[in-house]
Every structure is written in C-alpha cells, then in structure tokens.
Amino acid sequence: MTKTQTRRSYRATLVLDLRGATESPDALIEKLKDTFKAVDAVVSEVRNLGQREFARVVDRRLPSGLYVQFDFKAPVTAPVAFREKLRLDRTVNRILIQSV
Fold first, then answer.
1. What digits encode the pLDDT tens for the residues 12-42?
2. At a CB cut-off of 8 Å and minimum separation 6, what does 32 contact?
C-alpha cells in the first residue's frame, strides 16, 4: 500500500528587505523558488508587486519593501517548513502564507 500526500494550493506573500543586498531582486526571487522546491512545493506563478510603502512603519530605517507573491501547491507540512528555512534570511522581512 502506498502512502499519498495530499497537496493543497497556497499563496505566499513575502516582503523583501533589499537594504545591503548584493543580488538583484530577480536573483533573489529565483533563490526563493529554489527554497520552495526544497520543501517539495511546485510554484505555479510568481508576481512581483513592486516596492511599496508600509502603512504603518515599525522600523524607521525600513519604510518600504519589495512585495512578491508566489502561488504554489505543496503538502500540508510545507508552509511550516518554508517559514523555518527562511527564519534566518535577512532579505525576507515578512511572510504571509494563505490557503487558497
């Protein structure tokens, strides 16, 4: 008997902090796609929403960020694993993962 994993559709919205980044935003997005592949997720669409000002600035040195949305299918455990992989990455400021 084989065990099959159910895959769900998710949308991840990430706010990137580009201060001090040596790579271009497109290179960072490709690196994030590789992180999705590492947690067994299949990215179907990527949308670069551009640089946006925060409605409420928490850190005055960071008044805006680059917003990127990823639509992907993954096992139920993937969102937690994805957050854990990006926990220490300084270029990712905020992560929001929604089940679609």
1. 999 999 998 889 999 999 999 999 999 999 9
2. 14, 68, 70, 86, 92
Q: What DSSP assignment string belongs to 16-84?
A: E--TT--S-HHHHHHHHHHHHHHTT-EEEEEEEEEEEE-SS-SSTT--EEEEEEEEEEEETTHHHHHHH
Structural domains of the chain in order of their starting residue, each with its CATH number: 7-99 (3.30.70.60)
From residue 90, alpha-carbon distances to 71, 86, 95 in Å are 22, 8, 12
User: How, if at all, do strands 92-99 and 42-53 pair?
Assistant: unpaired
Its sign, for the CA torsion 17, 20, 24, 29, is: negative
- pTM, whole model, 2 decimals? 0.88
User: 58 — phi, psi (to 5°)?
Assistant: -90, -40
Note whether 84 and 6 are within 8 A (CB): no
Torsion sign, CA atoms 21, 25, 27, 29: positive
